[in-house]
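Appendix B, example 12.
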Amino acid sequence: MPALAVTSLLLSHFRSHRRTEMAFDGRPVAIFGPNGAGKTNILEAVSLFSPGRGLRRAGPDEIGRQPEALGWKLKAGILSLHQMHEVETFAEPGAPRSVTIDGKPAPQAALGRIARMLWLVPAMDRLWIEAAEGRRRFLDRMTLSFEPGHAEAVLTYEKAMRERNRLLRDEVRDPGWYGALEAQMAGAGAVIQANRMAAVARVVAAQAGAETAFPVADLTILGPEGEMAPEGAEALASAFAAGRGRDMAAGRTLAGPHRADLGAAYAAKGVPAAQASTGEQKALLISLILANGRALAEDFGAPPILLLDEVAAHLDAGRRAALYDEICALGAQAFMTGTGAELFDTLGSRTQAFEVTEKEGLSVVSERTG
């Protein structure tokens, strides 16, 4: 059993699952079945045992099973660094999501101290060619995996920015109204920048220090339009103050960590990731996830739990086999989905397999052996 693993999972009135119970032995988990059967819902359930809104970024009222509208509940046994924890997360209709750890109410941030998770979903296949917002979320998830406190800095920054934006829209010109908010933004923004740069450095080092079948990505953090952003609290505060006139015309804050972008290039070819082939873009993403996992294994003391939805898409058989070998070498518990069991053939006995089917609108999960 890995030092970090989900050992049991219960889904109650969660999306297509009225009640599903699964037990895991620590091996990589292959989940297969037709599209729409409820495979990704299992990965989403696991992702909600980490801070945030999970791999679909859904609100609590979006994921309860319909039409019952009874609310939903997830329960997991999680082995973390040789300690067993019983973790529950749930929401009643119209209520925010709650978390309990070992029977006691806990903030979502506490989940990051128990489990570290990384995920790759089909929507991320367009990461390198979509707007900067998606890459920024990817960067912050990477950063959060190393520093769970990163979420608090982001919340502090965004709360102060919303207040500043309100002043801008109301065309308030008194500098006294802006000073305290901009100081708060600058302080939190500097923490965000430092956390992001440290995370990128760790992942880059983990890529460079490993022999892998996946390409190395050169990573940079850029400001809007590709320029270098001001760094540090003092520089940020000055930029906010200097930009008030321009920001007032726009009705929003135009510079700061919330406008950052993650730049990536295919190192071996020296071309931006956006200009690489579809298969190369997917391989670069996988390379970053694996490097993030290797770095976390050193920092946290255990490899993270990996959630890889439809991971075989755009991978040929050789690279697919290489991915499975690297997951096993990392020693990580990985939850992977695909439409057919044959996609996981090269894992052989190294995997625990489950088939998901749909019956009368309900997901049915069966473990497959042999």
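The first strand starts at residue 4 and ends at 14. The chain has nine helices and 15 strands.
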